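Minutes, project check-in
Item: structure for the 64-residue chain
Input as provided by the requester:
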Amino acid sequence: MTNDREDKIRERANEIWQRDGSEDGVTLEHWIQAQEEVDAESATESEASARDPDNLQNRPPPPS
């Protein structure tokens, strides 16, 4: 079973491979590039979510 991150990386690596002309022998390079891009997007989304005042997960608990 794969996880969501791995699926995203696989899809991105395939997109990069197609964009670069479907060249053989560069699978690792495409995978590494895809991994870096997916992880960077994830970090950006996490930072944006943390700054979102409407995100209930970021609100402190009400006083008791």
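Outcome recorded: The mean pLDDT is 84.
No further action items on this chain.
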